[in-house]
Amino acid sequence: MSSSPPAGKKAIKRFVLTFQDELVERIGWLIRIRWLAAAGVSTTILLVDLLFDLLLNYRILLVCAAFIFLYNLIFHFYFRCLLREEHLPQRHQRTSRFANIQISTDLVLLIVLIYFSGGAENPFIFYFIFHVIIASILLSNLASYLQASLAVVLFNLMLVLDYLQVIPHYRLFPFLNESVYHNPVFLLGVAGVFTSTLYLSVYMATSITSKLRRREEELMQLKDSLEQTNRRLMEIYEYRSRFILKVEHELKAPLAAIQSLITAVITGFPEHPEPKVKDLLTRAEHRTHNLLELIRQLLTLSRMQTAGHAFKLEPVKLEPIISRQLEILHAQAESKGLEIVLDLPAEIPPVKADQEAMHQVVMNLLSNAVKYTEQGSVTFKVSAEGNFIRLDVVDTGIGMSKEEVAMVFEEFYRTSDAKAKYEGTGLGLSIVWEIIEGHGGRIEVVSEPGRGTTFTVWLPRAEA
Amino acid sequence: MAEKEEKLILVIDDDRDMLEAIKIMLESAGFAVGLAVDGKQGLEKVEELNPDLIIVDMMMETVDAGVKVAEKIKKMKSAVPIFLLSSIGEATSYNLDTSAIGFAGVIQKPLMPSMLIPLLRKKLHIA
Predict the structure, then answer these.
(1) Do A270 and B28 touch (CB under 8 A)?
(2) Chain A within 8 Å of B50 (Cβ-Cβ)?
(3) pLDDT by residue (tens digit) across A318-377?
(4) How many structural domains is chain B composed of?
(5) Nearest-CA distance from B92 to chain A in Å?
(6) What contacts A187, CB < 8 A, 6 or more positions away?
(7) CB B117, CB B25: distance < 8 Å
(8) Helix (H) or strand (E) holding A445
(9) Which chain B residues have a beta carbon less than 8 Å from that of A356?
(10) Lowest-confidence range among A284-293, A349-358, A406-415, B100-109?
């Protein structure tokens, strides 16, 4: 049984981490935005001064803009200190507090700006919505509502104090009658719309944010359980691979011993020339050999099918593989009087492949060509084609019909001609097909009965 | 079966039946044969018999045990040709460049006297 903690707990922990990381990132963004805001406020004040005839006290407003620059400078340096904090829980705590302080400071400054530029008559009061939305994205739900409440309290306090004439009124529009600021219906209307707008904004923004956070949390959990499943699958795969290797050895060792013992009897005791015994032994030896070949191919196929993405892909040079396989087939080709034609470029670019699998491909294609050809030649041609290396194995052998070509990669399938005249397992080409598929390559067959067969393989180049 | 000069071949394999079969094949071809059933005994026999040629099974106890034994022998007697014995199509034999590590070659199981004997004769320079 697995001893690791349940996936959910781990995922939530990591979720908090990513949320905090995101907060840090967004605070950096908030500070950058504030530079723009300060510049925007200053420019607006100067432009309004130039273009319109308003009742603004520009000097106070420019002092406010300068104040934004100043405190943002402080935030900027504090943020850099915060990034150096290595103790994570402490850093997270300070980050959250820092985000709250920044938004509160912005709210206070916005109310000051609004107060000095007309109070309730200033259309910029809608800018509070931005602050509230930013708070909902950055902060917890509770903190977002508290920030919205701070804005509501500050704004309504300004209206009340203004109404009660505790503080002087700074006017904005010369065409507005001053009595409007002392009209309770107007002020109540503004206060009501302002308050409801802010709370509605915070409600909508927080509900969207919470939903997104929940989704993210679910995704993280899913990702974690997927990772765990993936790890388990890899373990099972590795176990299976080791198991197949072991089975291969355990099955082959006794058979090889049996065959060698029979061979030893046949060749080692010429003083016992009983022909019937010799014939039976030769047949037993032959069948053992076939069984051994079948087991070898079955296990290779099984290994290749399990391998899938797990082929050990590396740049593989084909030359040594080709010459090794040709060496093995040389005697057989010579005994049949076949000409082996090699058409290789001066240098074959390496393919991106599994070493053992490439031996299988070259061995199976070449040995088939030699096996099923009685006279003529076997040509092995290699060429570069775009991002692929193309191998052609051309023989002048028995060939196949169209229907047979369509079945040729199926496990245990052998054409009737092949079955009648030659030994074989019907697995060699299935192995080749599995390997080529697993390497992202392609294989094609062209054949004509009695004329010969051409297998063409495309394998991805190593540099591609 | 009288050879002018009987060459001694040492075979190291943990499969006793395989050892017996090889022994019969080699003896009927006129070689003298020494046998060892594991790496340790193999190393002792190398010292004791001073063979002309050594055949080591690649797959003993563990996957690469045979190769390790062969490498040890190579250090002891660098002039004696060593053949590695492998099951046909064994994955490990593909990844092994025998000449690079100084071995004479890989012989694939099952053993065919018609291939094996000429190969050994050639290596031992027997006509």
Answers:
(1) yes
(2) no
(3) 988 898 888 888 888 888 999 999 998 888 899 999 888 898 899 999 999 999 999 999
(4) 1
(5) 9
(6) A120, A159, A163, A181
(7) yes
(8) strand A442-448
(9) 91, 94-95
(10) B100-109
* Angstrom distance (rounded) from CA A259 to CA A336: 25
Q: Do B18 and A263 touch (CB under 8 A)?
A: no
pTM above 0.80, yes or no: no
Kindly report the backbone phi and psi dihedral angles of residue A440, in degrees, each rounded to the nearest multiple of 5, phi listed first. 70, 30
The two three-digit tokens of residue B122, written as one number: 């050639």
Interchain contact B24–A (C-beta under 8 A): yes
pLDDT digits (tens, 9 = 90+) for A28-51: 889 999 999 899 988 988 888 888
Tell me the C-alpha distance between A322 and A330, whole Å.
Answer: 12
Confidence of residue A92 (pLDDT cuts 50, 70, 90): confident
Query: Which of the 8 DSSP states describes residue A376?
Result: S
Substitution target in A263, A301, A367 with the highest count of B β-carbons within 10 Å is A263
Q: Within a domain: residue B2? A: no
What is the tens place of the pLDDT at every residue in A16-32? 556 677 788 888 889 99
Q: Which of B17, B21, B110 sits opposite A292 (nearest CB)?
A: B110
The verdict on B91 touching A (C-beta cutoff 8 Å) is: yes
**Whether residue A3 has pLDDT greater than 50:** no
For tokens 């959990």, what's the residue?
A221
With bands split at pLDDT 50, 70 and 90, how would you rate the model's confidence at A2? very low
Q: Tell the residue number behind the tokens 């009124």, with chain if given.
A: A169
H or E stretch covering A380: strand A377-385
Which secondary structure element, helix H or strand E, spans residue A345, and what is its range?
none
Token pair listed for A352: 């991106």
Hey, which residues 341-360 in chain A have their CB within 8 Å of chain B? 355-356, 359
Query: Using the beta-carbon criterion (under 8 Å), do B88 and A292 form an inter-chain contact?
Result: yes
Q: What is the pLDDT of residues A431-443, one digit of tens each?
A: 999 999 989 999 9
- Domain residues of chain A, as ranges? 7-230, 311-460
Tokens 């019909």 sit at which residue? A401
CATH number, residue B112: 3.40.50.2300
Task: Band the pLDDT of A307: cuts 50, 70, 90.
Answer: low
CATH classification number, A311-460, choose in 3.30.420.40, 3.30.70.270, 3.30.565.10, 3.30.420.10: 3.30.565.10
Give ∠ CA A235-A237-A238 in degrees, rounded to 5: 65
**DSSP symbols for A326-348:** HHHHHHHHHHHT-EEEEE--SSP
Residue B43 sits at φ, ψ, to 5 deg, of -65, -40
> Cα(A6)–Cα(A9) distance, rounded to whole angstroms?
6
Q: Give the one of A249, A259, A265 whose C-beta lies nearest to B110's C-beta.
A: A259
Which chain B positions have a beta carbon within 8 Å of A260's beta carbon? 17-18, 21-22, 25, 109-111
A405 token code pair: 């070509």
- ipTM surpasses 0.90: no
What confidence score (pLDDT) does residue B119 get? 86
Range of the domain at B86: 8-123
Distance from CA of B19 to the nearest CA of A (A): 9
Task: Supply the DSSP symbol for A167.
Answer: S
Give strand pairing partners of A454: A394, A446
Lookup result for tokens 């309290």: A153
